[in-house]
Amino acid sequence: MALLIREGILMSVSASRLLAFMRNVAAPDPKVRESAADEVTDLVSVYSLADGRVLAGVLAAAAECETDPAALEAQLNAIIQLGSLAEPEMVARLRALDIERLPGELGDYVEDILEG
Known about the structure:
With about 120 residues, the chain is mainly alpha-helical. About 60% of the residues lie in helices and about 10% in strands.
């Protein structure tokens, strides 16, 4: 379970909250997917190693299938923010993305993640 410190009080990120992140990253609505990835980013400093690896893998799978540029950017940013928790084998599925066809600088995000 990940730990969260807010206003000097030790709190935890529950399993149900982690599962909610994962459900929302796979939601039909791209705004929900984007918001879920942003929420993962907001708590990035409190995930355990195991939680971070699971989230990185789920975000990479979501990014591989993502059709909405804003949601994709949020997913890739969340993976970048997870840093060392996003092990290469957890994000390797991003290799399936055609970097040249991604909008804006998202190809650079993918390259940064894969070069990790």
